[in-house]
Amino acid sequence: MSKEDSPAESGTSEIQPREILTWRKQWLAFALIVAVAVPGFLYLSGIYDRWQDSRSLSHACKGVVDTTEVREILGADRIHGEPYAHFRDSITAPGRIDRCLVKNPEGDGRLIISLDWNSNSSGSLFAAGRMNSHHNTGMAIPIGHGWEGVIDRRRPDGPDIAILDMPCSNMRSSPKQADLIVTLQAMSGDGKPITGDTQRARLARTATKTAVNAAKAWNCKASVGGSIDRVPKESAYQDVAAGHVSGTCKGIDSAVWESAADPDAPIEDCYQLATEAKGTAQTRLGAYYGPFAVAFPHVALFGSDIKLDQRAGGAPHSMYWATAQCPSSGTALYTVVSVSGDGSGVGPASPSARKAALKLFATQSAKRHGCTDLKFP
Fold first, then answer.
1. For labeling, which of 127, 140, 207, 260 is most exposed (least CB within 10 Å)?
2. pTM for this model (two decimals)
3. Same domain for 224 and 262?
């Protein structure tokens, strides 16, 4: 080799194989550290959990659930979505669109969301405990603000139920898919019902916003109500003295339990109290509109006695019913039944008294809803 070609003398150098190997080891070690440290950091910092939660919510019920206020409703820092199926209520039930669960993965709070066509409107009534329509539980409170919905509570200890009916103006040619129904069942993280005006308004807003999203997703062109800043007061088990009745029991001249009256409420309740036992429900009256009038006979314990094609009827030891014709929702159903099972020992009102109460209740309810052609037993 000449002097000109000598590396040492020309000022250039070559990277030795040992140096290359060391460099590669350093980079492999660095990559290994990153591969271990970054996921660990993401996990410990909560970023991974939040990503998983967000991803799960985007898939729950096709992403239509409005979760803006669900954390506050459940009292949870985190919420996670997943499909939901109950052994009594298969997700493949006729008329079922979808069903999902939004829960606190670190606690007990949960929100069950059911999306149904009107052919499965009985699911909403089951959720609200309407199979026990002869008991003194349940008081449908209208959401109001132009929404065809109510808030209810299955039992005094919950869960709280929100039911929204969305009649689809573009689906009238499909009787089994003419209404989209959204049902929410909520239980807070401490295992207690949703209480307080603020929380109940949050539940109503979550239900209505979810219903709007679902209507868009399933091509249901439905009219919507206004924004909700508050809902009527919870009034279950609150005695209203005779002469002061002004809500759903208007027209009945006795002490009652009642809710605020609203012309858009698809379900209404009224309890007539016994005169001989203060604060004890003796007679229960109910009004059902739209798909719930069709579903109720299939849900209630005494519902099998109801024959809607007969327009009115009943029996002394069962349930009396009346009907009316409504301009946009078809046949409305009005019922009266003796309350039982509360241990008070109060006997039933006479058949004539129950039928008289039914006539007063149904007349006022039908008037609010613009229904006519009432038929009474």
1. 260
2. 0.85
3. no
**Is residue 91 a contact partner of residue 113, using CB atoms and an 8 Å limit?**
no
Residue recorded with tokens 């308004």: 201
274 CB burial (10 A radius; 0-12, 13-18, 19+): buried
| DSSP 3-state of 154 | coil
Which tokens in the block code for residue 120? 């499965």
Cβ–Cβ under 8 Å, residues 165 and 283: no
Task: Share the mean pLDDT of the chain.
Answer: 86
- Domain boundary residue among 233, 252, 283? 233
Cis check for the bond before 159: say yes or no (omega within 30 of 0).
yes
**Token code pair at residue 51:** 């990503």
Question: Cα(151)–Cα(139) distance, rounded to whole angstroms?
Answer: 8
pLDDT tens sequence across 197-249: 999 999 999 999 999 999 999 999 999 999 999 999 999 999 999 999 999 99
Given a contact cutoff of 8 angstroms between Cβ atoms, the answer to whether 339 and 321 are in contact is no
The residue ranking higher by pLDDT, 340 or 103, is 103
Q: Compute the distance between CA of residue 249 and CA of residue 294 in angstroms, rounded to an integer.
A: 23
Count of C-beta atoms within a 10 Å radius of residue 79: 24
Closest to 332 (Cα-Cα) out of 364, 283, 290 = 290
Residues 98/61, Cβ–Cβ less than 8 Å: yes
Query: DSSP class of residue 282?
Result: E
Question: pLDDT-based confidence at 92, cuts 50/70/90?
Answer: low
> Which residues are paired to 203 by β-bridges?
none
Residues 281 and 203 in one domain: no
Q: Which residues does residue 101 pair with via DSSP β-bridges, in sequence order?
A: 82, 112
CA diameter of the chain: 128
* Contact in structure between 282 and 274 (CB atoms under 8 Å): yes
Rounded to an integer, what distance in angstroms lies between the CA atom of residue 200 and that of residue 260? 15
**Residue 274 forms part of a structural domain:** yes
State whether 184 and 215 are in the same domain. Answer: yes
Q: Which domain holds residue 141?
A: 65-233
45 in a structural domain: no
> Among 211, 233, 255, which residue terminates a domain?
233
